[in-house]
Amino acid sequence: GAVVSQHPSWVICKSGTSVKIECRSLDFQATTMFWYRQFPKQSLMLMATSNEGSKATYEQGVEKDKFLINHASLTLSTLTVTSAHPEDSSFYICSARDFQGRSYGYTFGSGTRLTVV
Amino acid sequence: SQQGEEDPQALSIQEGENATMNCSYKTSINNLQWYRQNSGRGLVHLILIRSNEREKHSGRLRVTLDTSKKSSSLLITASRAADTASYFCATDTEKLVFGKGMKLTVNP
Questions:
Q1: What is the C-alpha separation between A101 and A78, in angstroms, rounded?
Q2: What is the mean pLDDT of chain B?
Q3: What is the pLDDT of residues B38-71, one digit of tens each?
Q4: B92 near A CB under 8 A
Q5: CA separation for the pair A74, A90 (Å, rounded)
Q6: Element of type H or E holding B63
Q7: Residue A59: closest C-alpha in chain B
Q8: Measured between CB atoms, which of A34, A49, A103 is closest to B31?
Q9: CA A49, CA A58: separation in Å to the nearest integer?
Q10: What torsion do the CA atoms of A107, A45, A86, A108 make, to the nearest 10 degrees?
Q11: Nearest-neighbour CA in chain B from A76: distance (Å)
Q12: In angstroms, rounded to a whole number, what is the distance separating the alpha carbons of residues A36 and A13?
């Protein structure tokens, strides 16, 4: 089945630094990927839709200059949290969409736990 | 953005009992999906029901969809301690939007 690899699985960084998270579709091409964040005991909140070869579409309230998304190839999307602050500490999950027979299917990465100290 | 609203938010039952979770949404959808998540880890896809389907089964899972009421339910029969997890519904409208989720605890 479809597999999405997300890396790193966890990262600790200092306030003010930037962190890059990678999301790769391993055995399929994904023209569209999605990025979510999840705070403890809360649901997944869609941050943005990443489209290969074009600019990402951000959800309302998500700062595009804060969360830079690059989808340079059909198998790789990256999320860079710039000038990270403790309030950015969260669980970030990516998802890749591909057409599976009759409809689109979504495959999720295993997530990245970001802690900003 | 969030669309689905699960009801109840938390449920605690004994092993062997059935667990029912409800989800309501607001817009037209292509399909509705249910996921589980253990302790803030990755998501596990449970079942997908298309907008033209009313009921679907997978093992101990039964999902219903009522598009006129914009609601869905997930029934887990004969629950096990291993079913303890958070469960989310997600509506597919060319992107997946998750509901608030429900924490299920199955006591041995």
A1: 27
A2: 91
A3: 986 889 999 999 999 999 999 999 999 999 999 9
A4: yes
A5: 26
A6: strand B61-66
A7: B1
A8: A103
A9: 6
A10: 0
A11: 18
A12: 19
C-alpha count within 13 angstroms, C-beta hemisphere, residue B66:
9
User: Measured at the alpha carbon of residue A88, what is the angle toward residues A36 and B10, in degrees to the nearest 5?
Assistant: 60
Model pLDDT, residue B5: 61
Tell me which residue of B75, B70, B71 sits closest to B104, measured CA to CA: B75
- Distance, CA of B94 to CA of B28 (rounded, Å): 11
* Inter-residue contact A63 to A85 (CB < 8 Å): no
CA distance B49 to B42: 21
Alpha-carbon gap, residue B104 to B15, rounded angstroms: 12
DSSP letters for B22-44: EEE--S--SEEEEEEESTT--EE
Angle ∠(B92,B93,B94) on CA atoms, nearest 5: 95
- Beta carbons of B25 and B99 less than 8 angstroms apart: yes
Q: Tell me which residue has tokens 């996921």.
A: B35
Between β-strands A76-81 and B43-50, what pairing exists: parallel, antiparallel or unpaired?
Answer: unpaired
Q: Indicate the average pLDDT of chain A.
A: 92
Judged by CB atoms closer than 8 Å, whether chains meet at A46 and B98 is answered as yes
Q: Using CA of residue A77, residue B2, residue A12, residue A4, what is the dihedral sign?
A: negative
- Amino acid, res. A6: Q
Q: Is the dihedral of CA A109, A33, A91, B38 positive or negative?
A: negative
Residue of A nearest to B6 (CA): A43
Percent of chain B with pLDDT strictly greater than 70:
92
